[in-house]
Amino acid sequence: MSNSVTSASVAALADAVLALLVDKYEAPAETTAVDTEFELVGFDSLILVEVAVDLSRRYGTEVTDDELQEAGTAAAVAELLVTKGVSV
User: Fold this and answer.
1) Residue-level pLDDT at 25
2) By C-alpha distance, which of 31, 32, 29, 71 is closest to 51?
3) What is the model's pLDDT at position 4?
């Protein structure tokens, strides 16, 4: 896969993850971007468990709350998903 395809996949996935965080988990849309740290929007470990389950179901690959905690942002989660073979 070329870097431009990978970059496009990461960007599209980052936008999709951000939309999930804003729409379902009520991250404040006006102050949340793909590079906003989860801690800054008040996401605790319980919310990250729920997000992990949603992402696992949505993309058909296991995502753990520990991986989300380590990633820390929607952009980093998108990169994680791409390394797991997810594409958009």
Assistant:
1) 96
2) 71
3) 65
How far apart CA 9 and CA 49 sit, in angstroms, is 24
Q: Is 77 exposed, middle or buried (0-12, 13-18, 19+ CB in 10 A)?
A: buried
DSSP characters over 63-88: --HHHHHHH-SHHHHHHHHHHTT---
Q: What parts of the chain have a pLDDT lower than 50?
A: none
Among 69, 78, 76, which Cα is nearest to 50's?
69
Sign of the C-alpha dihedral computed for residues 22, 25, 26 and 27 taken in this order: negative
Cβ contact 22:49 at 8 Å: no
How would you class 67 by CB atoms within 10 Å of its CB: exposed for 0-12, middle for 13-18, buried for 19 or more? middle
